[in-house]
Amino acid sequence: MSLRFSAPSRRESVAGAIAEPATPFHLVQVLSDLWRLVIRSNAPQLKTRLGIALALTVIGKALGVVAPLLLGAAVNRLAKGHDAAAGFALAFAGLAVGWAVIRMLAAIAPQARDAIFTPLAQAAQQTAATETFAHALTLSMDFHQTKRTGSLSRVIDRGARSIDFLLRTLVFNLAPTALELAMAAIVLAKAYDWRFAATAVLTVTVYGVLTFAISDWRIGHRRALNEADSEAAGRAVDALMNYETVKTFGAEARAAATYDQALSGYSKASVQANTSLALLNGVQAVVMNIGLGIMAVLAGMEAMAGRMGPGDVTAAILILISLYAPLNILGFAYREIRQSFIDMEAMLDLTRQKPDVADAPDAIDLPGALDRRGGDIVFKGVSFRHDARSEGLSDVSFQIAPGTTTALVGPSGAGKTTLVRLALRLIDPQAGQVMLDGVDLKQLKVAALRRAVALVPQDVALFNDSLRANIAFARPELTDDAIWAAAEAAELGNFIRGLPDGMATRVGERGLKLSGGERQRVGIARALLADPRVLILDEATSALDSRTEQAIQATLRRARQGRTTLVVAHRLSTIADADEILVLKVGRVVERGTHQALIALDGEYASLWRKQTRKTSAN
Fold it and tell me: Could you tell me which residue, 221 or 525, shows the higher pLDDT?
């Protein structure tokens, strides 16, 4: 018979959309997946540790069944020893000591097994978490823009922890318990009577069936707890990561109330879960004691008929009690296995998500630069439309020659950011080609492309780490001298030297301890340190004051030497010296040329220029 554990019929996916009904889990398939994961983990002395752990499990269960027989024999000897008290007392003591030693070994075996198996379980858990985390980082921009960071983190964390629980429970609890039941049935049938074996098997079977049935009913409460926990965690992380927005709008009480509402759902589900747990425990107690009662009656009848001694009665009852010991956690184990399957399914769903951008099977490294002045970028008939937009890029074609600077201007939503993402291959065009030095970006290895292209975004994202780590993020292997040179080039040197901790200063969550201009200068230093063929500046000086902007513009002009530059700008004065300016409108290039040529054309660009110069004059 194949054990099946059905996952939720409809569930919330990590990206926030409702997924299709899940395929039931088969125990054999799950064990196969877990086994492959253990092998992939490359834990130290893997095969040796696994073999010893399994052997200790079997030995412990066998000793647990044999131990009551020794105690029964000891009691029988004592009952018959009235005429030779000393000799029988010595025999009883020997058997009793043997029983105690065997029970001790049976108890020690699982502890020794856990100590030996723990490195394997932790290695498998680490492998699962690392592989899932690494896969999540490869997923598309759309995926990461629609998911909740807190919920995604919980999916990875719970999924990895479920691996450890499933390994311990399935391999070292449920399977050994079934083995112990089989051994106990054989011992009871051989040593006493088949009715004792039938009683033990029937009791355990009824106990298991009722436990599984009630646990199936209870699993809905556990799922509600899980969903409420994820919701509360997601809301808490959202509010904490965006605390500036919360405080700016005085929404602290509202954020706390939303969090409290999420916790309220958790509390209600928790009450239901605890109530149903009490019912489960009560049913289990009834079944266990009925089984013990039947076994005691059978043993008493056999003793009255002279076919069993008092020690045999004791042994039969002790064997059944020893079977009950692992069954005490059967409800918990079954529920947690089901929950672990749900957690593992969510993690596997994440790993099954296909990245929109990935290396082709025949992907190549970036060839040597065709021109020492930088890379040659070509957009040929490129079209792209986001699902959430009615319009997008349409048949865009242009070339950025090595060592030249091309600027993209136009209203918001015209497609400037989409072109930047296409150049970085964060997304792929739905039609047309983007090429670097004559090679389609789809044919290049993603890592090679990202080493050749560096971006300074409008909103620079920093890690909660030191200034040094953030500047050196692109090339952490470089020396302090190189890092300081990049900082100086980005006009950061004096600022860093003025800090008490200098380069070791931590910038806070997302760099919020720095001003917007300081974050942008760190982004510029990071891009300069990468030494790319192509430098992309997406409103790279928008958060700077006029004096600092002028200084960094001069730095960026120097940085353009020896590389190709693509600039996105709203402030047209910053790109007046560009070799070519492309004016985008509704996803199309409507004008192109130099600053002077576009002013003379008196079209869209000239209109934008007049508006900005009038504002500057008015100020």
Answer: 525
